[in-house]
Specification:
This is Metallo-beta-lactamase domain-containing protein. This protein has about 325 residues and is α/β, with parallel strands linked by helices. The chain has a single domain, classed as Ribonuclease Z/Hydroxyacylglutathione hydrolase-like (Metallo-beta-lactamase, Chain A), CATH 3.60.15.10. It contains seven helices and 15 strands. It has helices at about 5-10, 145-155, 175-180, 190-195, 265-285, 290-300, 320-330, and strands spanning about 55-60, 75-80, 100-105, 110-115, 115-120, 120, 125-130, 135-140, 160-165, 185, 200-205, 220-225, 240-245, 250, 310. It has a nine-stranded mixed β-sheet with strand order 2-1-3-4-7-8-9-10-11. Strand 8 (about 135-140), helix 2 and strand 9 form a beta-alpha-beta unit. The radius of gyration is 19 Å and the shape is globular.
């Protein structure tokens, strides 16, 4: 099988993987112009491995993989109102601690890390969670909602905003909509026509749409409507990228992936190599239909002054995040 044939078969399923970066964890975030400054961190964020949750839901902080001596020392516990027992999740490379939620920015942003299976390979999945200034909760790219995750979410505040950022991450939106009937669900452009059974309230990204007033002016977005499936000539991902200004976090889905260079299963490692060596040139030469528009969108994103990238696939980038993104797209 030639490389081009292979690319033709796998490219539609690998469309975001042109931008893969291995990066370490950071310490500080620069203030964002025009927004309230983000409190400085006195210590690096850490991810604590938990053996159990006795009568509580525990929310841990992100941990640098190199800092093994601090494992489990900075765990933050939020007691569940129902005081129910909760067993740990299975530990995988995509959720090595088995946590229900991982705190990314203290008091503001969390991630639910879960396996994300593609043809039997765990490519990792990460849902972003933001608590807005009014106390409501914003969810980006929902993962499966089980009892443990729902209990943890309910401790953060009322879930009011559910966001599906592209075509490929719509699988669990309806489950969240049914679990949180008071929430509004938002889709990327064109998704309501593709998923008429999902009760989306609105689409965000096209035709001059703005962020909802209920989001309190805390977010900006960019619609990357500049790539297509080269075989059907139709939009493939149709991704909308979001930034949360108060925390400085950029939320990306399939536009940017950040797989670690090590500590992944053989299948995931081989898949990553295929993305780098087969998909990257395929994406550049066959899927980017408007490079000028792509560069324009990227310029908009880089102007936001974010300091952390929370990708749906791979690890968090919180050191020179804008430079990391810029280098990938050069």
């Amino acid at each position: 099988m030639t490389a081009l044939t292979y690319a033709a078969q796998v490219a539609p399923a690998l469309a975001g993987c042109a931008f893969v970066q291995t990066h370490s964890a950071p310490r500080q975030r620069a203030p964002i112009p025009g927004c309230s400054p983000v409190p400085s961190r006195k210590a690096p964020l850490r991810r604590a491995a938990l053996s159990h949750w006795p009568r509580a839901i525990q929310l841990s902080s992100w941990k640098s993989p190199s800092d093994k001596t601090q494992l489990g020392r900075r765990t933050r516990v939020v007691h569940a109102a129902a005081q129910t027992e909760a067993a740990p999740l299975d530990k995988t490379w995509s959720n090595p601690s088995g946590n229900v939620l991982t705190e990314v920015v203290p008091g503001q942003v969390w991630a639910a890390e879960r396996p994300f299976m593609w043809n039997g390979i765990d490519v990792g999945g990460k849902m972003g969670v933001v608590r807005l200034r009014d106390g409501s909760v914003w969810v980006h790219s929902p993962v499966p909602l089980d009892n443990q995750l729902k209990a943890a979410m309910d401790q953060l505040g009322p879930v009011k905003h559910i966001v599906t950022p592209n075509y490929e991450h719509a699988g669990f939106a309806q489950q969240w909509i049914e679990a949180y009937p008071d929430a509004k669900a938002y889709a990327c452009p064109g998704l309501r026509a593709k998923k008429p059974d999902v009760r989306y309230a609105a689409e965000i990204g096209a035709n001059g749409s703005a962020t909802p007033a209920e989001w309190g002016g805390e977010f900006s977005f960019a619609f990357f409507d500049c790539e297509h499936n080269p075989f059907t000539l139709k939009p493939f991902f149709n991704e909308v990228v979001y930034v949360h200004h108060p925390s400085g976090v950029l939320f990306v889905t399939d536009l940017f992936w950040n797989y670690p260079g090590k500590a992944v299963p053989p299948g995931t490692f081989i898949w990553k190599q295929g993305m780098d060596k087969v998909y990257l040139p395929f994406y550049k030469y066959f899927m980017l239909k408007r490079k000028d528009k792509f560069e324009q969108r990227l310029k908009t994103v880089l102007s936001w002054g974010f300091s952390i990238i929370l990708p749906c696939h791979g690890t968090v980038v919180d050191e020179k995040a804008a430079d990391v993104l810029r280098r990938h797209f050069q």
